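User: Here's a protein and a ligand (L263DTV3). What would the complex look like?
Assistant: Let me lay out the input and then the predicted complex.
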Amino acid sequence: MDLKQNNNTAVLVDQAPVSKSRLAMSSSLPACSPPSATLSSGLYLTIPKKIPMPSKFDEINLGVFLDAMKSSSPRKNHKEINFEDAFKDTNSAYRTWMKKYPSALTSFEQITNYAKGKKVALFLDYDGTLSPIVDNPDNAFMSSAMRSAVKDVAKFFPAAIISGRSRDKVYEFIGLKDLFYAGSHGMDLACPGKESNLFQPASKFLPIINAVFKCLIDKTKDIKGSKVENNKFCLSVHYRLVDEKNWSVIAQRVHDILKNYPLLQLTHGRKVLEIRPIIDWNKGKAVNLLLECLGLNRDDVLPIYIGDDRTDEDAFKVLRELNRGYGILVSSVSKETEAHYSLKDPSEVMVFLRSLVRWKNAQIALD
Ligand SMILES: O=P(O)(O)OC[C@H]1O[C@H](O[C@H]2O[C@H](CO)[C@@H](O)[C@H](O)[C@H]2O)[C@H](O)[C@@H](O)[C@@H]1O
């Protein structure tokens, strides 16, 4: 199928008459100056009209924002919590949750029974899935055991990494050639099998992203522990190492910058504020596109997507909508999810990948 027909929104963004000159105008502005351009709406991009924002968060908005920041990853410091009771509560909530989202390890036979006669395609998130969450994003290395598990699994099944990181960065971490890589939450992917294969639906936003990156660096440099990461078509503002009493400061600064950039939106990840273009593209759409490029958009293909983050929910949702394949959420706490199964942490992900390899070898031996 022709990519352009199949992936209407994203491909059309590349052709969109919108914003080219206006985006360029923003990039030539000094960092942190609001763009002088007003909003435009193109034929293909749906860009909301600019809603006047208060210069300061009002208390309610800031409260909501901070709640989202607090709930974005389990807390480390529970000074006032009775640990024994909290542990019991958490454990029982998790057990109840596991009934709905059983372990992909204990359900392995069920999964592989369903996979018989089908081609499995694997989609893997990186941070929190293949590498454990660590304080410094630059140190999120993958273990060599995990690398070899991924390498082995990719010998038998088409496998793709879909990460919020830049494509180059995630490739640098993983370093395996026989995989497909999508960076910037799927906004940067090399479509296998296509001649001109780079698919970058947000390319026109690069000047804005780079301007906001500089601005964020400048405006957060005095907040101890904060870190701004440029993921090419999106940005991450990390606050994992910021003292909680300064979270409202970081929230306010990010809000103050973004109110000048209505073409960007903000989402919450794991102790990170993620800033990205307001295009209708996400990890779920990237999964669909990759299935298409790989000729795997077929009933006899079983896509399995493993991820730990809110952005992975878009991919779980797509698998549910296709009524094909399984989403597996990596989490050691109960969470609302569109996934079918769960795994506790990256070490369980590795066991699952190794089990897939063993299962495939056994299948081959039987043939
Ligand atoms: O889609 P992903 O591959 O999961 O990327 C999502 C974000 O992951 C990284 O941040 C997270 O992991 C860091 C390292 O463990 C951790 O320090 C941080 O608190 C987490 O939010 C990455 O640095 C971000 O840019 C990605 O957006």
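Summary: Residues 125-128, 133-135, 137, 140, 163-165, 229, 231, 236, 238, 240, 269-272, 274, 309, 311 surround L263DTV3 (CB under 6 Å).
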